[in-house]
Amino acid sequence: MHALQGVRVLDLGTYLAGPFCATVLGEFGADIIKVERPGTGDNLRRFGTDTDCGDTLVWLSESRNKRSVTLNLGDPRGLEILRELIATADIVIENFRPGVLERWGLGPEVIQELNPRAILLRVSAYGQSGPNRDLPGFARIAHAFSGLAYLAGEPGGTPVTPGSTSLADYMTGLYGVIGVLMALRARESTGKGQVVDLALYETIFRALDEIAPAYQQFGFVRERMGADTVNVLPHSHYRTKDDRWIAIACSNDDMFARLARAMERPELADEDELGPKAKRLAARDLVNELVGGWVGSLPCDEVLARCKQAQVPAGQLYSIADIFDDPQYKHRETITVEESRIGPLAVPGVIPALSETPGEIRWLGPELGAHTDDVLTELLNRTPEDIARLRAGGVI
């Protein structure tokens, strides 16, 4: 038994944000029908590192558990099949520019007529309304527009993309999961579906803690701070004697006092020294110099051991090579090795862990159109002859 067993999702999206929502739903048992263009498929198949099977590592990992169906939506017969599939779905996911569904004659009102219980998730760069609604955008643009990229980097340096990852796509996919699950819950009472409208930039902006109230109240414009954090200290990255990096996070005065004892400098936490947070913030360079000097005098393992003994939150900055060797990752199966079309492949595991209805990876990203015949037969009662005619006509 899976948590979302019996829920059918029609994934019309491309690239990552909308499709990642479908991926998470599929991990917990939803039946994901991935609709793609015949011949080329989703652009995500070519986004990332190429492999011998013709699809990228990103596709293999992030299109797990999906059934691939090809449909030519430029053909009226393909659109008719899509309409029939919508009638069978609980959730429809799209992340085109606003207006594309409407041009196909499949706007929210039409979808509601076809299937009053259907929940439509719409993901776009700026949302379905507002002066920017028609502008294109990807995760990098969302990082810029949301204010995140402005904050990332060293003081006075070039703003950077945090982690060189498509964070906005993943965050928006997760908010999409929240939205459709709430809509499913509401449908239990109303019997009706609804539209979930998400903009890439909004999900990033939502994670920027007090940046909005701090500006509204005090006119404070947060600038790039490198590894530091605006309101707590020491809360940064420090280089060890053996040229590794660790993170130390002292979020209150008690934690700093414990760190001072670990440093064998307990007097630093005195009331008239650096004990109160306000005094540490006023002496940021000095605090970082003291902590950085102590960390730099010891090898990484020794620093971490002393912090552990003193109950100071600390951890090494891991590369992916470090992650693969770590016993915590192994114990939690945060990385799992699954069979794929290129052989055994390491991919991120399923989260969160549910005690009674856990998720699972049943297969990795499928070949283009691998499930077309099955879906048309199972859901739409097409015969082998019907399917052969559709294929000959370039509809599938």
UniProtKB/TrEMBL annotation:
Pfam families in the cross-refs: CoA_transf_3
Keywords, in A-Z order: Transferase
Domain of life: Bacteria
Alphabetized GO MF terms: transferase activity
InterPro entries: CoA-transferase_III, CoA-Trfase_fam_III, CoA-Trfase_III_dom3_sf, CoA-Trfase_III_dom_1_sf
SUPFAM superfamilies (UniProt xref): CoA-transferase family III (CaiB/BaiF)
Family: Belongs to the CoA-transferase III family.
Name used for this protein in its record: Carnitine dehydratase
Species in which this protein is naturally found: Parafrankia soli
